[in-house]
Each structure stands twice: as structure tokens, then as C-alpha cells.
Design a protein that fits this description.
Elements: H1 2-21, H2 29-55, E1 73-79, E2 85-91, E3 102-104, H3 108-113, E4 121-124, E5 127-136
Parallel strand pairs: 2-3
Antiparallel strand pairs: 1-2, 1-5, 4-5
Amino acid sequence: MIDLEKDYRRFADTELAEAVALGDIRENAEYDSAQWRQSHMAALIAELHSAVSSQIIFIDELKIDPSAVSIGTEVTLREVHSGQLEKYAILGPHESDAANGVISYLAPFAKQLIRKKVGNEIAIGSLCYKIECIALAKFSKP
């Protein structure tokens, strides 16, 4: 993102300099356009910074307590009636990949699992699951 900012600022400065070189900036459409693009892009970059800083969660593996389901854990569930096992990693919204068993802690299913311990049961619709195992989730650091 820092490279994006540097590249855009370099481009914007060049664009403004070229527009100024065309002459009187009071009636210079190129200058007005370059100024508008520069302020619009600055607002977008600020919005992107805000979104990224409020969304990224860094998980310290040493602080994850695998005695209960939490962000950064992988939980193994057994469907009580069929006995089928399912595994889910509870991570952040940006890491979510339901097809591969990675769910966001914001998902309703994950919210029901958070703070539960091995042996606890939860009901999801008509299905009932028992927590069989809780371990540290396998995830790569940003």
C-alpha cells in the first residue's frame, strides 16, 4: 500500500507540473482535472488506510488458549446423529474461506462456538454438534 501511495503521489505531482507548464492555471482545464484527481485519490487512499487499520487482526499464537474456542483456534466437531467429523478454523473476515473450513469469527456459526469447550454441544438449525477437539489454527502470518 505504501508503494501505491508513493507511485500515485509521483504521478500526481508530474501531472500537476505538466498542467502548470501549459500556462495560466486560472483557466486551465488540465490543471483543474489533475487537482480534482489528486484530491479524489488522496481521499480514497485515506479511506483504504482506515479500512485496513480497523480490519486487520494480528493473532499472537502464544496468547491463544486452546482450552476454549476463540479466534485463532481450529475446532473439530462431531455431528451427534451421524457421527460425521467436521473441522473449522476460526479466523478474521479477510481470511474466511468456507469451502476450506475457515470461517470468520463474525459468522453466526462461529459466534455460537466462541468460548465453548471440549464436550460442549451446540445446535445449528436441526443439527447438533459436539466439540471433540480444540487446537491452534494453522495460518500464515501477514
